[in-house]
Amino acid sequence: MSTRATPNVDAAEIAKFEALASRWWDPESEFKPLHEINPLRVNYIDEHAHLAGKKVIDVGCGGGLLSEAMALRGANVTGIDMGEAPLNVARLHALESGVSIHYEQIPVEEMAAREAGQYDVVTCLEMLEHVPDPASIIRACATLVKPGGKVFFSTLNRNPKAYAFAIIGAEYLMRLLPAGTHDFSKFIKPSEMTRWCRASGLQVNAMTGLQYNPLFKTYQLKDHDVSVNYLVATERPVEDA
Fold first, then answer.
1. In what side-by-side order are the strands of the sheet with 145-156?
2. CA–CA distance from 232 to each of 20, 195, 197, 226 (Å)?
3. Which element (helix H / strand E) includes 156?
4. Among 30, 72, 24, 75, which Cα is nearest to 54's?
5. 207, 232 in Cβ contact below 8 A?
6. Which of 32, 106, 165, 241 has the fewest CB atoms within 10 Å of its CB?
7. DSSP annotation of 190
8. A single Gene Ontology molecular function, please (predicted)?
């Protein structure tokens, strides 16, 4: 386990999303790509984990897009993040939507120490590429889930194509995201993701690519092509109990 005395967060990354928090729920804002991929993400999670009635924790929940979508599928959702402003936006939007979600500002490692093995489903999407020690986040997510429970991650592959599409294309040419949203050196190869998951006691069940079609301006999930964005479905084996 990490011996880091300070939380596993990058202050500059937190500040970046704090500054944008008020626009989190605007589908035409900097968060437009998140709004567009959110149905794909929640459908993928629901297909693998059957959310209705499940106790779920959304790690790095931001303004609550995924948290609310899962709650609307019948899950009992907790959302955690280290950004105060996005959490305030998430709480307010949940009140306006009439959705019951518990939000808390806490590092996932601290939450794992407090509530180990308490969740049926753990989600950690679009977060790992924004922290100093992604392996520590994966270990904490594995600790939070019950034996037999599901853990989902999403991130960006680290290769020339991902740099061209996710940074040059998305941030500078098509301006789908603000310039500087991503740091290519923090992108994660599927081999690294798989190794960290297995080291944390998670079994990798599926890995699926998320692709953007610039001609039709649409997103789709595509198996066997994880060259840019990808989702990972994992499980904590029951024999770990």
1. 101-105, 76-81, 55-59, 119-125, 145-156, 229-235, 203-213, 218-223
2. 27, 12, 10, 10
3. strand 145-156
4. 75
5. yes
6. 241
7. H
8. polyprenyldihydroxybenzoate methyltransferase activity
Q: Which amino acid is at 116?
A: A
d(CA 240, CA 148): 9
41 is in an annotated binding site: yes
What Å distances lie between residue 215 and 174, 196, 219, 239, CA to CA? 11, 36, 11, 47
Distance of CA 198 to the CA centre of its chain: 18
125 assigned ligand-binding residue: yes
Q: What is the pTM of this model?
A: 0.91
Q: How far apart are CA 133 and CA 58, in angstroms?
A: 18
180 token code pair: 């500087």
Q: 202: which 2 tokens?
A: 């998670």
Rounded Cα distance between 212 and 112, Å, is: 34
At 46 the three-state DSSP class reads helix
The three-point CA angle 232-23-183 to 5° equals 45
In tens digits, the chain (241 residues) has pLDDT values of: 333 446 788 888 888 888 788 899 999 988 888 999 999 999 999 999 999 999 999 999 999 999 999 999 999 999 999 999 999 999 999 999 999 999 999 999 999 999 999 999 999 999 999 999 999 999 999 999 999 999 999 999 999 988 787 777 776 566 667 776 778 889 999 999 999 999 999 999 999 999 888 777 789 999 989 999 999 999 999 975 5
- DSSP one-letter code for 186: G
What is the spatial distance between Cα 199 and Cα 215, in angstroms, rounded to a whole number? Answer: 40
| CA atoms of 55 and 42, how far apart (whole Å) | 15
